[in-house]
Amino acid sequence: MDTAQPSPDTPMNPNRRHWLVLTAAAGGVGTVFTAVPLVSSFAPSERAKAAGGPVEVDISDILPRGAKTVEWRGKPVQDHRVQHQ
Fold it and tell me: What is the pTM of this model?
C-alpha cells in the first residue's frame, strides 16, 4: 500500500471530490436542522410573555412624594415619586 503524498501537479480524483462535496453539504444541512430549533428555543413562550411582560404605568399624575400601586404578575407594586432638592 502506497502512503506517499501525491505531488501538487497530480490532478484530484473526481470521485473523491464528489464525496467531499456531498459530505460538506450533508454537514451543512445537519447544522441547519440542529441550529434552527436551538435558536428558536431561546425565545420566551407565550405563557412567559403573559406572566412577566412589561407593564407600562403613567406616572405623570403622581404628585411629588406620592405613590401609585399597580399590579404586576398578580401582585401589587408601588411606584413612588420623590422630590429632588
Answer: 0.44
